[in-house]
Predict the structure.
Amino acid sequence: MAALWLAAGCSDSDRGKPAAQAPAPAQVVVSLSIDWEGAYIEEEGQAALTRFRTDNPDVSVTHFICPAYYTKPGAVAGDNTAALRSQIRTGDEVGVHLHAWNSLVQAAHVPVRTGRSFLTADGHLMDFDGDAGFDLDPTIYTVTELRAILSTSRGLLTSAGFKVAPVFRAGGWLGAPNVLEAARAEGFEVDASAIDPAWLGDAEGEEEFQQLAVRLRQVWPKVDRTTQPFMIDTPAGPVLEVPDSGGMADQVTSEEMADLVLRAAQKSGGPVFVHLGLHAETADDHAEELSSALGNLRRAKVPMQLVTVGRAAELARAALPKK
């Protein structure tokens, strides 16, 4: 018996005393998202997303959808709606994801602008099915132009039968001031664009991600992977920022995702907020990384809630200091 007490760090004189209570583990709020980039919807990616949803039935997801699927040349609206709807489950939410595709900009009756790619080494914009603009920094457009693009984006999704929540993510995480002002003016009260640029800058051999990381350090200079939700003031009103603290499965391993949540759980008090996500277009390569991380966390019995970004925002508002 003495050996057991000593192993627990207690002496014989401690017997009969109430055991010291270790700090309660944090309740980790893990929000999850799937980014639909507006580039293409293919069978392999859809199958991977279906497996992810089947393997994680307890997961509610925010679908950040860029509706350029509907504006591309030759788009078949009914097929795209069916594909999107097949991955949306009860408890999920749909938000707007802004990539400045030429076809989407034109649908908003905004003059198409051009510039350097934030991804390619030579600066040439990528093209998918005759449509460019995916990798164009959205800040090249004015607030008025961005509002028109966002209004059109919401309208396209609503017309397809989706209920759009007031949650937003900028393409390339480039939620610069004019982008967030436009989003807030269009009724989006929650943003999930903030990211630790190191998630991309540390990607070995990925020159395009390192280039984007440089730009993101300008947009989010104070954000790291431990940053908690915070308020951003814009001329159109306040926006609650729910950072993409865990990056996306394209650049982050399952071990890194799980470790981020485990570290959050070790903090006393709570709640502590973490975000994890993946891209629909590359789900066939990366969805398993996120699924593996969640499986490891469940087996470790980490105290966590798996929620949408909107729900995380509600919990964050309650936890923020009152002014």
In short: The CA atoms of residues 228 and 245 lie 8 Å apart. The chain has eleven helices and eleven strands. The chain has one domain: 24-319.
